[in-house]
Amino acid sequence: MTSAHTERPPAVRGAGVPSSNLWWGLDDIPADWGPCVATVGVFDGVHTGHQQLLRTAAAQGHQWGLPVVLVTFDPHPARVAGPARDTSSLTSPQRRADLARESGIDRVLVLAFDRELAGETADAFARRVLGAGLRAVSVVVGEDFRFGHGGRGDVALLRTLGPELGWSVTAAQLHPHAGVRCSSTGVRRALATGDVRGAAEMLGRPHRLEGCLLAACRRGGSRLHLIDPTAALPAPGHYRVRVTRPVAGPGPLLRVRITERGGVLVPIAAPRPGTGWSGPVGLDFLEPA
Ligand SMILES: Cc1cc2nc3c(=O)[nH]c(=O)nc-3n(C[C@H](O)[C@H](O)[C@H](O)COP(=O)(O)O)c2cc1C
Ligand SMILES: Nc1ncnc2c1ncn2[C@@H]1O[C@H](COP(=O)(O)OP(=O)(O)OP(=O)(O)O)[C@@H](O)[C@H]1O
């Protein structure tokens, strides 16, 4: 049996108010849960393609009077299985859940992606998670969705299992950006070249880095201590960012520097405990500066 729990974060993480719509594993699902509409995938970017898919799932839930659940994985499956590739994080599970909620998702189930889960067959995963766990009556995924050991599960398998497990399948068309499928990979590539505007176009919002400000550099500036050390950094250089804080919301525009060594230097004094600046901040990357 695959371990159901991924690591629960401390009470406050990220620059947003902690999400209350998260389940950290199958054990968190209430015993009387179901039926529901379910969608599955990493959804790291929650980019415009994902948003379109999520709105399709949300519209179905609305029409049928059912809650909509997004099943996601942490860490990114490609850190555990398959060929090595850039899996730097565009969102934390908490932020993913906040963004998913904006597209009409009611609950987010985070599954710890470990070697054991990577070894589970698509058939077994569908039965255990979508069937027994969520009691899904509708599964909504992109038409190229793959899952299960070796990525062998697909839309056709979900459709084959439908009559037995009681769900219908919607395979959503893939939303393009500049003529190619909008993808988290595309967003990571844009950030890696410093194209934060292009990344924002694909995301439908600026890319955000979340962290705490530390007094660690000269001339009164601060260093951003990233909450997630695997967060996707824009290429070294200067950028105009909007600072956001929990509850207080959008703050000032600043010019920050990403160093060659992956430091994030912010030209404001580090906060003192008890000031409005203490606690986590988010930097929304608007444009090169
Ligand atoms: C039960 C399970 C087993 C998986 N095993 C593998 C694997 O062996 N190799 C691999 O590259 N990906 C594996 N994956 C990851 C999937 O290929 C895919 O990345 C994941 O389902 C998320 O879909 P998405 O990338 O479309 O968001 C597995 C996924 C699941 C749910
Ligand atoms: N452009 C898109 N339009 C609609 N649905 C999409 C799009 N891209 C991905 N999806 C769907 O969203 C779900 C999550 O996909 P996934 O997280 O793998 O997206 P991705 O952006 O391609 O990620 P990566 O680039 O890291 O592989 C899957 O069901 C997938 O089919």
Automatic annotation (TrEMBL):
<dbReference type="GO" id="GO:0005524">
    <property type="term" value="F:ATP binding"/>
</dbReference>
<dbReference type="GO" id="GO:0006747">
    <property type="term" value="P:FAD biosynthetic process"/>
</dbReference>
<comment type="similarity">
    <text>Belongs to the RibF family.</text>
</comment>
<dbReference type="GO" id="GO:0009231">
    <property type="term" value="P:riboflavin biosynthetic process"/>
</dbReference>
<keyword id="KW-0067">ATP-binding</keyword>
<keyword id="KW-0808">Transferase</keyword>
<keyword id="KW-0285">Flavoprotein</keyword>
<dbReference type="Pfam" id="PF06574">
    <property type="entry name" value="FAD_syn"/>
</dbReference>
<protein>
    <recommendedName>
        <fullName>FAD synthase</fullName>
        <ecNumber>2.7.7.2</ecNumber>
    </recommendedName>
</protein>
<dbReference type="GO" id="GO:0008531">
    <property type="term" value="F:riboflavin kinase activity"/>
</dbReference>
<keyword id="KW-0547">Nucleotide-binding</keyword>
<keyword id="KW-0548">Nucleotidyltransferase</keyword>
<dbReference type="InterPro" id="IPR023468">
    <property type="entry name" value="Riboflavin_kinase"/>
</dbReference>
<feature type="domain" description="FAD synthetase">
    <location>
        <begin position="31"/>
        <end position="185"/>
    </location>
</feature>
<comment type="pathway">
    <text>Cofactor biosynthesis; FAD biosynthesis; FAD from FMN: step 1/1.</text>
</comment>
<dbReference type="GO" id="GO:0003919">
    <property type="term" value="F:FMN adenylyltransferase activity"/>
</dbReference>
<dbReference type="InterPro" id="IPR004821">
    <property type="entry name" value="Cyt_trans-like"/>
</dbReference>
<keyword id="KW-0274">FAD</keyword>
<keyword id="KW-0418">Kinase</keyword>
<dbReference type="InterPro" id="IPR015864">
    <property type="entry name" value="FAD_synthase"/>
</dbReference>
<dbReference type="InterPro" id="IPR014729">
    <property type="entry name" value="Rossmann-like_a/b/a_fold"/>
</dbReference>
<keyword id="KW-0288">FMN</keyword>
<dbReference type="GO" id="GO:0009398">
    <property type="term" value="P:FMN biosynthetic process"/>
</dbReference>
